[in-house]
Amino acid sequence: MDWSEERVVAKIKEDVVAADFLISMFMAALQSYRHHSLIRPFPKDFRKQQNDDVDDANDFDRLRAASESVPPISSIIKDGSSNLNSEVHKVLRDVLYTKQFNLISRPHTLYDNIQQATGTASYEVRPKFVIELVHHNDFDPERQKFINLKEQYGSLIAYHGTALENMHSILRNGFLNHFNKTSLFGEGTYLSSDLSVCMGFTRSAAAWEKSLLGSKLTCVAVCEVIKHPSVKLPGGNTDPDIDRSSTIGGDKLPDTYVVVPSNEHLRLKYVFIYPESSSGRGATRSLISGVGNFLHTHSFVVSMLLYGLILLAIGMWQNRSFRRWWLQLFRK
């Protein structure tokens, strides 16, 4: 990768929103306590020369110092390469260079077209920015395998809510199932055809304080999923020999859920970006969606808990001592 300072500036000018997004996602991952696992591959220019093959060779202190010196996008556009010292140039060169894909900012009206493919969300969750991931290497073996599987089984569009700090790793390495904490309906990457459901699994976080998009962001991944027999889908299935909607515990998958056990059946297509609103409306929506999603997912458990509370209340009321105490309490 031989990108001069001028080439870095030109790349930023090609698509300001996409460049700002890449930098912001890198900064969010670098600030995370999980930065060792999220910043991979690690920028080669920031590896310690004396110990080149182990994680200890990654010089995060130097990388952070250089990253803090990255000027705002507006300054880079205005002043050009004269605003980039050697260390900043190395950071931007690594962050903006994407070997297998390009990121392109799209009109946020694309949201309506995607909603038509997935079905309308339970409530309006329109993003302010939409980024499309476009693969430019048609000869990539993994991409070709995905295309072949798509032709064989077909595909669908679904959403994945995740913490902001994970987006850099998803862009660079795809979805890694071993990072997922949710496994109620089996191992895999969890998605939903309802965007509002995914908002309950996102987590707004500080990204890049100099970002044009906003210093605190929330992101949702819009993915293409191969309808492979191993993928758990809501509703029935086309193969009578495979119960695709059942889970390891015997419970049914919630109506909008999709669980993808294998990374090769999942590809990122778009990213919805939500800057934090000063009104706090985004956080409220996430909370409401999260509570509603929990109640829907664990409806049987919640019902049993309520049933138990009712039985407990009846039993206590039948106890004469408790009833006498209760009546005396309200007479005071």
What kind of assembly state do the chains in view correspond to? single chain
**Structural class estimated from helices and strands:** alpha+beta
In total, the number of strands is 8
Query: Whole-number radius of gyration?
Result: 24 Å
N→C terminal distance: 81 Å
Order of helices and strands: HHHHHHEHEHEHEHEEEEHHH
Into which percent range does the helicity of residues fall? Answer: 40-55%
Largest sheet: 6 strands, antiparallel
What spatial form do the alpha-carbon principal axes imply?
A: globular
Annotation field: number of helices: 13
Spans of 5+ residues with little confidence (pLDDT < 50)?
A: 236-250, 278-287
Beta-strand share of residues: 15-25%
Query: Mean of residue pLDDT?
Result: 81
How would you describe this structure to a colleague?
Helix content is 42%, strand content 15%. With 332 residues, it is an alpha+beta fold. The strands form two sheets. Strands 1, 2, 3, 5, 6 and 8 form a six-stranded antiparallel β-sheet that branches. Strands 4-7 form a two-stranded antiparallel sheet. Helix 1 packs across helix 2 (16-31).
Name its key features.
13 helices, six-stranded antiparallel beta sheet, two-stranded antiparallel sheet, 8 strands, 42% helix, 332 residues, single chain, alpha+beta
Summarize the structure.
By secondary structure, the chain is of the alpha+beta class. Helix content is 42%, strand content 15%. It has helices at residues 5-14, 16-31, 35-38, 60-68, 73-79, 86-96, 110-118, 141-153, 167-173, 195-199, 281-297, 299-317, 320-331, and strands at residues 101-106, 129-135, 155-161, 189-192, 205-206, 216-226, 257-260, 266-275.
